[in-house]
Amino acid sequence: MFTFSRRSASTTVMAGLLSLGLVACGGGTTKDSASSAAPAAPASSAPATANPNAPIKEGLKLAFLPKQINNPYETIVDKAGIEAAAEFKGEAKEVGPSDASASSQVSYINTLTQQGHDAILIAANDANAVCGPLQQARSKGVKIVSYDSDASKDCRDIFINQANSEEIGRSQVKLLSEMIGSKGEIAILSATANATNQNTWIEFMKDELGKPEYKDMKLVKVAYGDDDDQKSFQETQGLLQAYPNLKGIISPTTVGISAAARYISGSKYKGKVVLTGLGTPNQMRQFVKDGTVEKFALWNPKDLGYLASYAAAALASGQITGAEGEVLKAGKLGERTVGKDGEIILGPPFVFDKGNIDQFDF
Amino acid sequence: MAPDVKTAQPAGGVAALPPAGAAERGSFGRFLRWDTLVGLLLVLVFIGGSASSPGFASIDNLSFALGDLGEIALIALAMTMLVVAAEVDLSVASVLGLSSALVGALWDAGWAIETIIPLVVVIGAACGLVNGLLVTRLGLPSLAVTIGTLALYRGLAYVVLGDRAIAEFPQQYTSLAVDDIPGTPIPYPVALFILLAIITAVVLHATGFGRSLFAIGAQEEAALFAGIRVKRVKLILFVLSGTVAAFAGVVFTLRYGSARADNGMGLELAVIAAVLLGGVDFDGGRGTLGGVIAGVLLIGLLRNLLMLNDVSTEIQSIVTGLLLIISVITPRLVAVIGQRRRRPSPVPSPAPPAS
User: Fold this and answer.
1) The domain A165-298: what is its CATH number?
2) Span of the secretion signal (chain A) (predicted)?
3) Four-CA torsion B160, B166, B172, B175, nearest 10 degrees
4) What is the ipTM of this complex?
5) How far is CA B50 from CA A51, A205, B186, B302, B313, in A?
6) Cβ–Cβ of B122/A13 closer than 8 Å?
7) Does A97 touch chain B (CB under 8 A)?
8) For A236-253, how does the pLDDT look when each residue is reduced to its tens digit (9 = 90+)?
9) pLDDT tens across B13-49, in order?
10) Domains of chain A by residue range
């Protein structure tokens, strides 16, 4: 029987390959032909005009769809957004999948559409996988705000971006400069040498350092810890030994800054070398409390949720449409301007220190 | 690889075994058959859902819920046949992921989608062939083999595509995976499923090949002596399972418009849950395709209804789990009750079929 099945199997495979060859020769739909043949992006159907003076409607129904429920960071964001909704007499809730897989958000989008929500706020697990159902929701008049992690820009109205690269880069230099009195040798402990976001930030840091007020600050080295705890730890050690006059280190990566803080806290450099960068409160709490690190930055997740909530309400009330240049009135956060591609930036990074770190748990 | 008449013929004789076993339970057992109950439960969920949640019975919602079940339903067809023959394939979701990763990688490399789809389905068949050969030639239990290939194929998927996500597939193909047939609320993949389900139902319940599956599942030794080429039949089933899973991977990729190595993670459990819920005996030899289809729909619509009522993911999972356990317990309970009622009978009843 195996002779038979083997023969028939090989016949099938041959026939299959043959037909593949034919199709391959005869051309077909490839990435290139599809993109060249694709019709130009349809002009958005008659863009609605915004009325900046329209009042926020009462009783708006908003839903937060995080990457995953029970994720401490996303819980803070969504809770703040739900509280914000109470300020403008709307109701908001958080629903979502228990796993952060690409497709798991899709059935939730459909459900929220059926439930008649005015806006869906989503931290997309996959920019494209959620696109189809988001488009369907929009065709039924649901407004879409992405936050934290963007969906494809033609599937949402507004993206709330935590912070822009330029602000992150420049503010890190400012933060360190305040602490060392704008004087002395400094180093950067980055992640990998080809990490796009890290390199963009470092470029802005170098640009900022070129300004006259930092003429006494000298960048002696950019070290790479590869976002590996042990390597970052060793690189910190190396930096401090190689540059005895080092006054400060900026580590714009959560892995790097916590490894560096761990090394410094147990060494003779504690209290002599200033460390700052981007980190999370839970990782950095002990080092802030023991005085190794005075201040570090990240964005404030509460403000992120708050701003997203106001953006959704403003969209659903017709105050804004998501067009560049419109102004969003965001309660206690003041005003934000809609940037290119419907992006609204939360603002400069938020600085954590001894005084406020205990208000955050993520 | 159609079943040939030679194997089918002798199967007819043995095939009398399982239905006879079922009939033994008498009219009481027949009335309480689990697959009938699942069908009734499905009707109840539908009526209850329409009454309680306004959005539930809307064409939009049902069409979406059906579309969302597409891949599970497709894979369940092949899985039903495997489980009836007392085998199982846990690697299906990994084959789906591998197929999705391949579609993405090849599309990214500039291949034509018309070449990619058949090639990927052939690779899926090969994955199934590997499973089948390990089970039939080395005599290994399919549970162990496919737990192994579950990890293996998923690993390959990551080798092929890493953690990238490939998007921007041609619109005429992504629409095929999402859109309804013009003028109906039926999405294309569901229409395809209906067609395949009819074919599967005919093969399983009205051909010698189908009867041979029940015979193998009920008692492999007996089936062997009755002249059924057990190994070959099983090999065919595994190849079918791999093929269908790979095709489901193509549908999944186009439906979400995103090829990823982690697509369909954990889907194998949903498929097996639907098959068991549909009344197929995990030990083989018993079950109906109608029951399985009702099982798939019940899981899908129940989940949809719970979501519409803001029931949390945890509770959804608890409800499906309980339902599954009940579905495994009930038929046994019915069998026990059936035996008690027959006890006064002077004729000693033969041993129930292996279950």
Assistant:
1) 3.40.50.2300
2) 1-24
3) 100
4) 0.77
5) 39, 60, 19, 12, 21
6) yes
7) yes
8) 999 999 999 999 999 999
9) 343 344 434 444 445 555 567 888 899 999 999 999 9
10) 61-162+301-346, 165-298
